[in-house]
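Reopening: structure tokens for the FE2/S2 (inorganic) cluster complex, inputs below.
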Amino acid sequence: MFSRQDKVAVAISGGKDSLSLLYCLNKLRFSVLGIHINLGIYKNNYSDESEKFVKEFGEKFNIPVLIYNLKDKQKKGIDDVVRQKKTFKVCATCGMVKRYLMNRLALENGCNVLATGHNLDDEASRLFGNILYWQEEHIEHQSLVLPEESGLLKKVKPFTFFTEKETSLYAILNGISYIREECPYSIGAKTIKYKEILNRLEFDSPGTKLRFLKGFYSFKKKINITSLRTFKGDKKCIKCGMPSTKEICIFCRTFEEHPFIIEKV
Ligand code: AMP
Ligand code: FES
Ligand code: ZN
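Re-run output (same inputs, fresh job):
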């Protein structure tokens, strides 16, 4: 995935997986930088609470952490964007914002690899959902490593084969405090239901999740499916210079086309 010559940006949400990953890579003497995005989700004080755990973590373990506040920098947080667009696809909009910013901030800070804290439960439930609805492009895209591609950093998921329970335990044993609440927009999400189903199967036959995911990766190798990046930006955004399919990228359009600003609630 990477070596000690690389500079690894670790995207940290304030949760157990990503904080454990950053702690672990730092302990193994990799060159790391934690990057956190305060998304401006104010229900249950979710974003500010998450940032609090990230700050505490950086100070406690003396690990460099960069915090980007979406509302401060772009005048709007996710709550504002969602209300303006009147969209119900909150997670899709938020996912786009996170992917764009993680990549841009990592690049701007001299990193050449971007690591996220996705764990076995995340990846197995994602695969389960994609197979259930035969989302062929998403199935092809699911990978431990996505190669670097013009303007998009190499992406890796080092904790893919650890369960949620294992990363929680690792955090607790190493004195890492983390946010326990889930994002308020994730309530009722299909992935949570898939996780519950897989946990029931796991309870009856321990090892099911791991076999399911590992089997998928070896099958993918066998039939020689290369993991392509789903985002194919053949142009450069004229505002921010990042890869884009249109003249102005979706991130810039999202944050610039609505001058009307809603105040923090
Ligand atoms: P999620 O999509 O919330 O399951 O998060 C998956 C991974 O994305 C986490 O393990 C982190 O690596 C990263 N991530 C999620 N939210 C943030 C955030 N607000 N700032 C930085 N990285 C994040
Ligand atoms: Fe983005 Fe929940 S973290 S919608
Ligand atoms: Zn742009």
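The chain has eleven helices and eight strands. Residues 39, 90-91, 94, 183, 185-186 surround FE2/S2 (inorganic) cluster (ligand 2) (CB under 6 Å). Marking as resolved unless the reporter disagrees.
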